[in-house]
Amino acid sequence: MTRRGSADMLAFLVCLSVLLGAAVGFRGAVGALKIYLRKLPIESDLRLQSLPHQTDTWVRLTDKVEKAEMLEELGTQNYITRFWVRRHDQGNPAAPVLEMHAAYYTGMIDTVPHVPERCLVGGGFTIATGTRSLPLHIDLSGWTPEPDSPGVYSRPSYATRDAVQPDGTVRKVGVRARVRLPRGIEDLALRATQFMEPQTGRTMWAGYFFIANGGIAHSAEDVRRLAFDLRADYAYYMKIQFSGRYESAEALAADAQSLLNELLPDLLLCVPDWVEVERGEYPPDNPRRRQAGADNRG
């Protein structure tokens, strides 16, 4: 081997040693800082199709079943599109109908959530007004602050609920003894936009927010920051969207707030309890549970 060849080989070996050392150091730093680069999927025992058909003041009119091509676009089978009317407005054709769409996603770090600004425009609507953020006030009088989890409120749940299985059958399942609100619930807001049908000139309002990894998110960017926190083993988010032919964004937000105050505990049973996830108590194969056991043995 020539002197130049020996020098090139030495330089290659030095670079290789540096790269291997950096890789080992990076893995060690990731472990020490409890950073999780691969997100695991996580589900709840209840799917969105199992939501009750009525609340104290709202009644289900019908559910919309998406076609196969739309389901492929939606990217999840765990969804519900339900039309609601106030109980005292049943039979009144002039009463406003509130459409609620909720979809659950998990384990996907690069998915962009489907939002009305993309979906409705793709379906032929045009944006009639700029997006606004309207507060949704959740009544916390029946909820208890948790001393060990700052910013989290909880309340008792029921013992069992009918749950729709993936094959469409229904069975009663035990649910969590308590249901917890996501962190940031005091700042909950509806991201609302008015849309217009060019052919008819009719308008509608649509607004949404997300629940992601136990917190509230108001935009797709917020979802990425919450659901894909490098300190989290798991990632999930649920989009909750309301729409209808309302006169104003305020009217849509008022009805959305009314229904949410009655339905939110049931919606939250369809997502994992993030406090339990962070403690390693759920799901059964939670890596934090294994790590806690190893630490105790050590």
End-to-end C-alpha gap: 52 Å
Number of strands: 14
Average predicted local confidence, pLDDT: 84
The proportion of residues in beta strands is: 25-35%
- Specify Rg, calculated over alpha carbons: 24 Å
Helical segment count = 7
The general outline is: globular
Q: Structural class, from secondary structure content?
A: alpha+beta
Unreliable stretches = 18-36
Number of domains: 1
**Share of helical residues:** 25-40%
Order of helices and strands: HEHEEHEEEEEEEEEEHEHHH
**Largest sheet at a glance?**
9 strands, antiparallel
Short description:
This protein is α+β, with helices and mostly antiparallel strands and 298 residues long. It contains seven helices and 14 strands.
Please explain how this structure is put together.
The protein is an alpha+beta fold and 298 residues long. The chain contains 7 helices and 14 strands. The chain has helices at 3-32, 68-74, 116-122, 220-227, 249-268, 274-279, 287-297, and strands at residues 58-63, 79-86, 98-106, 126-127, 132-135, 144-145, 153-156, 160-164, 170-174, 178-180, 189-196, 203-212, 215-217, 236-244. Strands 1, 2, 3, 4, 5, 11, 12, 13 and 14 form a 9-stranded antiparallel beta sheet that branches. The chain has a 3-stranded antiparallel beta sheet with strand order 6-7-10, with no helix packed on it. Strands 8-9 form a two-stranded antiparallel sheet. A hairpin with a 2-residue loop joins β12 and β13. It is globular, with a radius of gyration of 24 Å.
